[in-house]
Amino acid sequence: MRIDPGEFVSIMGSSGSGKSTAMNMIGCLDVPTSGAYLFRGVNVCELDQDQRALLRRHFIGFVFQQFNLLARTTALENVELPLVYRRVPAEERRQRALKALDLVGLSDRAGHTSAKLSGGQQQRVAIARALVTDPSLLLADEPTGNLDTTRKAEIMELMVRLNREHGITVVMVTHEPDMAEYGTRTIVFRDGKIISGNR
């Protein structure tokens, strides 16, 4: 499978087809048992666990079906969290988190806790948290799975904008054909094999 910089690729397939396994390998959470995985020219299979963690931290953002926000902290504090782990100074953290919230259209909700945000707004906070480290690759696993139709369209239009206007490579797993259509290419898995959409 090949994914070029700047693409928006949707990955589809039934349960057990290999979508999540592929996503975990792309995200450097797992390594393949054979073959090679090249990320920006580096063979990930030759990296140790700490090196893979550094690669994830510096180049990859993750968005999941569950928003995974800390309930009693503000949107701003949730977005700052990855920068806390990087030991970024407080004022720089704040500025970068505000910029990321602005990018997803939520700068006016920075002081709101998760409980005061709609599902779509919570997912946008989760996307801002993924973007705050300036990743070159955004991995989204069923990012619209818990949202209603209107919120789904909002999130997908945001991801398209991030891809087109900011050059972020997006790889999204989805089981919904209408969501997959937002991508520029759809790869379909069946029984651990790619059956269409590969280059």
TrEMBL record:
All residue ranges annotated as the ABC transporter domain in the record: 1-199
GO cellular component: membrane protein complex; plasma membrane
Protein name: ATP-binding cassette domain-containing protein
UniProt-recorded Gene Ontology molecular function terms: ATP binding; ATP hydrolysis activity; transmembrane transporter activity
Keywords, ordered alphabetically: ATP-binding, Nucleotide-binding, Transport
Superkingdom of this protein's organism: Bacteria
PANTHER family assigned to the protein according to its UniProt record, in alphabetical order: ABC TRANSPORTER ABCH.1, IMPORT ATP-BINDING PROTEIN
Species of the source: Polyangium spumosum
Taxonomic placement: Bacteria, Pseudomonadati, Myxococcota, Polyangia, Polyangiales
Family: Belongs to the ABC transporter superfamily. Macrolide exporter (TC 3.A.1.122) family.
PROSITE patterns associated with the record: ABC_TRANSPORTER_1, ABC_TRANSPORTER_2
